[in-house]
Amino acid sequence: MPEKICLIDRYADRLPVGAGTPRLTLGEGDTPLVRAPFLESETGIPEVWLKVEGANPTGSFKDRGMVVAVAKALEAGATSILCASTGNTAASAAAYAARARLRCAVVFPAGYVALGKLSQAIVFGAQVVAVRGGFDDALRLARDAAQREGATLVNSVNPLRLQGQKTAAFEVCEALGDAPDALFIPVGNAGNISAYWLGFVEAARSGLATKHPRMFGFQASGAAPIVRGAIVEHPETIATAIRIGNPASWDLAVKARDESGGAIEAVTDEDILDAYSTLARCEGIFCEPASAAAVAGLRLRARAGGTQGLRTVVCVLTGNGLKDPDRAMALAGGLIEVDADLDAVCAAIGRPL
Ligand code: F0G
Fold it and tell me: Ligand 1: which residues within 6 Å by Cβ?
């Protein structure tokens, strides 16, 4: 069986890589684009598609950018990488560092990283440092530590990350035969919305698409600096992946919003959780809460008449639901346990199947 073509090879002509760049891969990219019939009927939009980025090797979109950043670090002779993270960047950095046999350290905001992500960083062998502070503190410290220690910083302030992540926009255009009318995406540190925009602009320029999508980004209302136009000192949201008060790619995200004729808006934690369980129960897709912010935004806009004229939209589901088992279990409200007896089991099942 031939191996899947690695992302670096597949897009070599559109990435800053050369013949000397190691073909590092864990099988990233080429993720499913899945139709969402329930959301289509709910919103009245003829085509709603979900880009399931949780199908990447470490369960999030970060792998696309990380493979390029780590391959280029290897090419440049680096021996160690470093990042700050709300969890997914760390899981991805740790995995690719393990594959490349590099040392990796990750800096987390203490107490605000989902269990799955923390366990990934640990099992891949990264040095895990939890700081008493938020993500913005962690990023500032990681930047300074990278400089002092001579390690390669692999946060999305490293432009190679955005280069890798733009490949998702190419895949969307390839799958649909053109760009969609609109893209709905969660916004945290604002790298991914910027990367998609970069990709869509390049897709249109190269003839892969005939148009650009409008870019609709969504922040959690307790962590919505771009929406408010001011840094949020103490961001709060159940969507810990996007609990960020001072996004590094703020200006690029605003540019994507304005050049595309889109918007960046806030969604409440309640809306996020509603979208999270609707995606699971009505579409059969388990994403993490931050990812559901994109769908929460789509539903909110649709209800307010803000999706008129859109025929084909794509929501980016950035991370896998298994990353955050605690959030899923909170929906259960207690498990039923009975004796190993047929009557007891049927009684517990309740209404006839
Ligand atoms: N969705 C998920 C699941 C994320 O992990 C992130 C960011 C985002 C959305 C937002 O993307 O930052 O490019 O705007 N996670 C980063 C991390 C901050 O450290 O893993 P963004």
Answer: 60, 62, 85-89, 156, 186-192, 241-242, 288, 290-291, 318-319
